[in-house]
Every structure is written in C-alpha cells, then in structure tokens.
Specification:
This protein is mainly α and about 90 residues long. It is about 90% helix and about 0% strand. It contains 3 helices and no strands. Helix 1 runs antiparallel to helix 2 and helix 2 packs antiparallel against helix 3. The radius of gyration is 14 Å and the shape is elongated.
C-alpha cells in the first residue's frame, strides 16, 4: 500500500510541477508540451485510483473524491491547452 500511495503522490506532484515548468518556458509550444506531460500524469493518477478501486475493499468514498478532483484537473488542463492553441 505504501508503494501505491507514494506513486499517487509523485503523479500528483508531477502535474503541478509540469504546469509550473511549462509556464516558465519561452514559447507557447514548450508550454503545450509540458501540459501534455501533466495530462499524462493525471491519466496515471486516474489509473492508480482505478487499480485501488478494484483491488481494495475500503475507502470507496475517498477514491470517488480523488477521482472527481483529478477529473476536474484534467478538464482544466484540456481547457488551458485548447486556449493556448487558439491564441
């Protein structure tokens, strides 16, 4: 369980870190690349949540809450990506 929790933390931190690093880049193309990486980390986190849902008996409410938050972050990333592409 510790390993999966650690993996979840790394994926969550990676989302924020890649957004920040991309925002600090010089070009929109570079920023978009980091947003794609952040989206990949959000997908990784979603997968881990699903694995936990299938393999554990407890914490369904907490997993639902995590998945809802991750879905909102993913949607925001897609919106930012779309906005950058259109500008």
């Amino acid at each position: 369980m510790f390993g999966i929790t650690s993996q979840m933390r790394r994926a969550a931190v990676s989302i924020a870190a890649n957004i920040a690093e991309g925002a600090a880049r010089q070009t929109k193309k570079e920023f978009l690349q980091f947003l794609y990486i952040a989206s990949g980390s959000a997908s990784e986190l979603d997968t881990i949540i699903e694995i936990l849902r299938v393999t554990t008996q407890g914490l369904p409410r907490e997993l639902d809450e995590l998945q809802d938050k991750n879905t909102r972050v993913s949607r925001m990333l897609k919106g930012l990506n779309k906005k950058l592409k259109s500008s």
